[in-house]
Fold this sequence. Notes:
The chain has 16 helices and no strands. It is mostly helical and 297 residues long. The protein has helices spanning 3-19, 22-30, 36-56, 58-63, 65-88, 91-98, 101-113, 119-136, 148-169, 175-195, 207-212, 214-236, 241-247, 250-262, 269-284, 287-296. Helix 3 (36-56) runs antiparallel to helix 10 and helix 10 crosses helix 12 (214-236). The longest helix has 24 residues, at 65-88. The two termini are 15 Å apart.
Amino acid sequence: MRTETLAKLACAYSGVVWGLFWIPLRALDEFGITGAWATALFYLVPTLLLLPLMLVRWRKLVAGGLGLHLTGLVTGVAVVLYADSLIYTEVIRAMLLYYLTPVWSTILARLFLGEAITAVRWLAIALGLAGLLVIFGVDVGAPMPRNVGDWMGLVAGFCWGVAAVRMRGDETNHALEFTSLHFLWGAPAAVLIALLPLSGAHAAPDAATAVSVLPWLVPVLAVIVVPGSFAAMWGASHLNPGIVGLLFMTEISVGTLTAAIWANEPFGLREIVGIVLITSAGLAESVPDLQRARRRR
């Protein structure tokens, strides 16, 4: 299987992981770890889990210099801001603003990497955004930022676009370094946001409560979240940033389906149409690959 195909599957898998993000988040809320503190715990624990890897590969982390750490910081801030935007504004607005990232990524890749913007790419972006609007409803109007959560979502999407361009253009460092620094720099960013006196801020959990969730949280993070993050970093280093943003939209489809199954959320014709459109956006990017494979036969 070609590296590009594997990278696409990796990014789609990462989107699936983030589509399941609401399940442990809701479980943490039931244990009393609410709001931005849940996001902070989602970064602090993986950072500790990855410390042995960082110690083994410390020379590579140092050799990567400021540029590598800047990439880790931007990826960490992007995902932390997105996770927290779901707390500080309506979910629909957070997702609509964050998932402008395929647009940012495509434009930035053109400007800084010289990658062409094809008609298929614009079609895929249109299909993905249309699917997003169908699922969440087109009656919300233009998603212009109007509160701190909205701005978090918008900035998060742009930051991920920047991060995807940096990883795509980095031919020296490995996804293991990107993943390690994603959590290492994301953790303090998550704690800082949790400490800020934002509207709807939540109290920090006590140590006993935090420890009580570790028996189930650690396996979830180690087996699902960390590998999902690695898949995102590895895929992003091998694909056009615009494609990465589109493939991450599998999060919306998976989140919609799983919420319908396990949380009794609405699921009908609108959701089906939206999922079909989002899936079509990802498949549209495979058309050129299929055409090239057919010519080689």
